[in-house]
Amino acid sequence: MRYEEVTTRRDCEMIQIPQGNTVSIPAGTAVVITQALGDSFTVQIPTMGGLYRVAGKDADALGKARPVATTETAAPPGEHPPVDEALILDQLRLVYDPEIPVNIVELGLIYDLRIEPHPAGGSRVIVKMTLTAPGCGMGTVIAADAQCRIESVPGVTEADVEVVFDPPWNQSMMSEAAKLDLGIF
Question: CB 3.0–4.6 Å: which of 39, 55, 91, 101 could bond 69 by disulfide?
Fold first, then answer.
């Protein structure tokens, strides 16, 4: 994506990167969209410095349509189809680190994925994931995105996403495609 300068059309809450603080940005603020992946945007605010994450639900504040990054996953009410790991991974591929234009699966941030029966029916999905840097304040935001994505899969009754730091992440954990995208050889 090319950078795009826009002015916020309404007040909007954004998350400061990498601190993870929520800030309210007033209408009329000049921002530069630096990344639009998954269903969120990363913007730079020249007057404030730094990067901020804008949720897809607030795309209109940037003058954009809400990104469509979901797959059709609705199941009939009360139905709990079998949960497939591939569907879970497809949903996790829609979650991006707001500073890196690669999804969390290709970055190698997913350490463990288990699917087990849920007592209420359906499945419980348990994921252990990490971050590219232990001090990143965006960990809870990225984990919450992952949890929402997993819970959108038909048959998933509950998802637990835990951020862990053992073993420490390093670039060798990235897929070959991610390395190519980022120019790492």
Answer: 39
Q: pLDDT, tens digit, for every residue of 160-175? A: 999 999 999 999 999 9
What is the edge-to-edge ordering of all strands in the sheet holding 40-44?
A: 4-7, 30-37, 40-44, 51-55, 12-17, 22-25
- pTM (2 d.p.): 0.79
Domain spans, the chain: 4-62, 85-182
What DSSP designation does 172 have? Answer: G
In sequence order, the 6+-apart residues with CB closer than 8 A to the CB of 11 are 24, 25, 26, 27, 61
| Structure confidence by residue, pLDDT tens digits, 75-133 | 555 667 789 999 999 999 999 988 888 999 999 999 999 999 999 999 999 999 999 99
The domain 4-62 belongs to what CATH superfamily? SH3 Domains (2.30.30.40)
Beta-carbon contacts of residue 12 (< 8 Å; ≥ 6 apart): 24, 25, 27, 54, 58, 61, 62
Longest dimension (CA), the chain: 51
Q: Which CATH class is domain 85-182?
A: alpha beta
State whether residue 23 is helix, strand or coil.
strand
Q: Strands, DSSP E only, in the chain?
A: 4-7, 12-17, 22-25, 30-37, 40-44, 51-55, 110-117, 123-129, 156-163
